[in-house]
Amino acid sequence: MIFVNSLIFLAGLILLVAGSNSLIKYSLIFSHIFRISSLLVGMIIIAFGTSLPEAAVSIVSSLKHHSSIALGNIIGSNIANIGLVLGVAGLIRPLRVEKKLFQREIPAMLILTALVFLFSLDYKLSRPEGVLLLVFFLGFIFLSWSKDSQASSSAKESSFKKAKVIFWIIGSLVLVVGGANLMVKGGVSLARALGVSSWVIGMSVFAIGTSLPELAASAAAAFKKAPALSLGNVIGSNVFNLSLVLGIAVLIRPISMSPAIVKFDLLFLIFMSFVFFVFTRTRLRLERWEAVALVLFYFLFLGILWK
Predict the structure, then answer these.
(1) Which helix (H) or strand (E) holds 186?
(2) Whole-number Å distance between alpha carbons of 163 and 29
(3) Which of 208, 38, 39, 43 lies closest to 109 in space, CA to CA?
(4) Cα(204)–Cα(222) distance, rounded to whole angstroms?
């Protein structure tokens, strides 16, 4: 059984890597054809696509009365996005940060993280709070699109080429999501054999598995010298997870949580978000030593969680 799960995990990894490379390639072409900034492509198109695994896992978990997996997956994925995804991308190549990120996107991520923490102080998330999270999501998308999109396409490109690019972006997202799902399936089976709790599985195995699309996409963007895609992907994904995904999950079924989740897991997410802000704000650049620190913080979190 372990051998079969390992093969499933490996098959998912191959699909994930192939899909992420194709996604970055055609997303960049898309941004040129439709005259959309690469930051906006990362914030919306890639971030939404790579957040689909989190959405699928959390929504299905809520429907099946596994709220601990739904919430753990979202919180764990956001911590993994900052510590693991941005850390690895920054190790590949130091990431230059566009100053305009601090005018809207990064503050939105920080405010949303604090908002979820405040909502959770009574150890539950209610449907009205889920509605507020969805309203936040809609406002974020509207502001991002209206300020960054030039709402025009290049007349030099044929309709066939435009359709081809869109087709490959959709196909790449299918590979990314499919690969991530296979990896989660194999990883969960192995984790359950160890007898760990559903919360720990959600915060670690599910979170890492559903963050693999972000990791693959951001790493590919770093290799291709497209830091805006790496940063936009992570920030957009974190906002999507805490507003759209969590909002829908809470609307389906209100979530109750233990005090430990609020006092450790959510506080650690706030800590990681603050560290990311400080690292990137000081020199508008994420240096390699800062990337190392993010990765080390993430593995420290996993060590405490599994202990």
Answers:
(1) helix 159-193
(2) 12
(3) 43
(4) 24
Please name the residue that has the structure tokens 């805006």.
228
- The bridge status of strand 124-125 relative to strand 255-256 is antiparallel
| pTM of the shown model | 0.79
The structural domains of the chain, ordered by start, are: 38-150+195-306 (1.20.1420.30)
Token pair listed for 188: 């969960």
CB atoms within 10 A of CB 275: 16
One-letter amino acid at 120 equals S
Q: Give the integer Cα–Cα distance in Å for 278 and 281.
A: 5
pLDDT tens digits, 253-285: 999 888 888 989 999 999 999 999 999 888 888
Residue 255 in 3-state DSSP?
strand
Q: By CB neighbour count within 10 A (0-12 exposed, 13-18 middle, 19+ buried), where does 291 fall?
A: buried
Q: CB within 8 A of 271, min separation 6: which ones?
A: 297
Question: What is the spatial distance between Cα 48 and Cα 141, in angstroms, rounded to a whole number?
Answer: 11
